[in-house]
Design a protein that fits this description.
alpha+beta; about 30% helix
Length: about 150
């Protein structure tokens, strides 16, 4: 049986549409690609974005900025050595992009230069960490994506 050029074009278009629909189906049904909103109040958060930029710049001006790493027991936050850690206050926000039910926050009240954050909901994968802290009435902010 011989196929004319019109039938060939229709078959090629149908194969192309099936190819595209396969990728759409994979992207919609696979939990790996599931990302929820960062914040429900993103318009309100946008109003304070310049303050966040100023806090990040304050942290970048430090000789030794705060660091966060994934350890075997949880997240390890290391504060600058030149600072008196008893004067540091703030909050650490831990956000899981794929599941907002795992998000949590932890108040910072360090007594030594390292603070270990242990939490029952720590699962392996990507975490967006935001540490909003204050030292001597100056505010700082660290945003980092960490794989635990």
């Amino acid at each position: 049986m011989k196929i004319n050029w019109g039938t060939g074009i229709v078959i090629a278009m149908l194969l192309f549409m099936a190819f595209i629909l396969q990728y759409v189906y994979k992207a919609v049904t696979n939990d790996k690609y599931n990302h929820e909103l960062v914040s429900e109040d993103y318009y309100k958060d946008e109003l304070y974005y310049q303050q966040e930029i100023d806090k990040v710049n304050n942290g970048n001006q430090l000789k030794d900025n705060i660091r966060i790493e994934a350890g075997k027991d949880g997240f390890v936050i290391t504060f600058p050595k030149e600072m008196d850690v008893s004067k540091i206050t703030g909050t650490a926000y831990f956000q899981r992009p794929s599941n907002k039910d795992l998000d949590f926050e932890q108040k910072l009240s360090p007594t030594i230069s390292q603070l270990v954050i242990k939490h029952a909901n720590l699962v392996s994968g990507k975490w967006n960490v935001k540490i909003d802290w204050k030292y001597n009435d100056k505010e700082y902010l660290l945003k980092e994506a960490i794989f635990y």
